[in-house]
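User: Predict the structure for this protein chain, please.
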Amino acid sequence: MTRSQQSPEYVETLIIGTGFSGLLAAVRLQKKKFNDFLLLERSPELGGTWQINSYPGAEVDVPTGLYSISFIPFPFRKTFSPQSELLEYTNHIIEKYGLRKHARTNQTVSSVSYDESNCLWHIETESGDRYTARFVIDASGVLANPHIPHIPGAASFNGPIFHAGHWDHTVDYAGKRVGVIGSGCSGAQIVPAMADKVSRLTLFMGRAQWILPRTDRQFSAIERYLRTLPGIRHLIRLAIFTFYDLRFVAFRRYPLISAITAPIKRGYLKKLKKQLERYIDDDRLRAHMTPDYAFGSRRLILSNQYVPALGRDNVDVEIGGIECITPTGIRTKDGKDIALDIIVYATGYYAYSDMKRALTFQVYGLGGRNLNSEWEQEIVSYKGMTVSGYPNYFKVNGPNTGSGHSSQISYMEAATGYIVQAIAAVKRDPGIRAIDARADLQAAYVANMRAKMQKTVWQNATCSAFYRRNMTEEVTSLSPEPVTEFIFSRKWFRLSDYHLLK
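Assistant: Here is the predicted structure, written as structure tokens:
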């Protein structure tokens, strides 16, 4: 008998994804003594983002005093932790809570379908394994699906070519000619990390970015220990949380707030221009790298090494655009043929910009409704975590729950807390088999969210960004709320917000 012929394995709660959001959901279930859960991971190893994103220079752009789970301390070694340390932290969580025994790897989910007669979800995987669950927590993440642009001739390139999010560690880039396509957050980390190791690096730069300096330092052994103590740790976290959440006002479009924050933004631009004058000799490149759009309308780059790396003798920056990839390198639109040994796409991910790619599996709800096709038309949810017509299906990092100014983990904590409250409420009442978000409340929530979004720089900006539908339209990824508001608006779960299926 093949696996596809075997009876599905039943589990009360199935969690898809083992990044921080999936692990948080599992830990919160454990704390409620709900131990009948299973984590599915499509990769060979657990860990999500920081398991997969292992490109040179990968590190978090929010201090780890805040980019960490509030109730799971760790002796981080520096202010902004690199990928290796974040993976250590991820594995620490997995081991501390014994989550490996609840997890299955190499399990790529292909579809989840709701069985109305039994109020259960049926989960299919590409490997043929099948599962049945009462609750599904989709923690598959929105920065898990690399965006690889269509460039003519890519298949003809004779050397290694890969996306930064799936770095090929079998490729030795030392002493090689490397081309990096893309100059966003990942490109800004890759270039400084590789520049002194390659013979020549060519960055194919898109639009200008807001590049800000940051304060980063190593912690001593004693400081690392002290920062894990409850009182000290919570004070540090509160200070960072407050600073970052107050920054949200810089992204508001209110006349008074704009007037207050304008001098700060001018100061950032002045610092950037000063850095460009110091390290970039080419007047045309300096002009190209000076942002001509509103501060914060694209994700900010925090780096002290990026601009200096671009000024190195062995680093070239191409701003004319790519015509095609050739067997030996890249041809630019102005006719240059640049010889390369390796090409790296640092071109980001599909978040909610392209719904055909953002959801990696099919979701079928009541009456055979398909969430994928519905979201292609209009991306809606209730509180960013549930969707009317899809009972007992919960999404972490759902539409408009992303952070444009603070730590995404703060949003994850709020979301998983709400979701586990919902599961607990259903389990307490034996007469309830499932809950389904009320369509009227969902419509009101979406309208309110869109009204709030209109008052942010993200929605009003003229530039393109990955968190916008089709890169230029409705903001579908970021939350229009500061973290404080997001947390308190989801602090308490109410059964009255849902239809009760009995």
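The radius of gyration is 23 Å.
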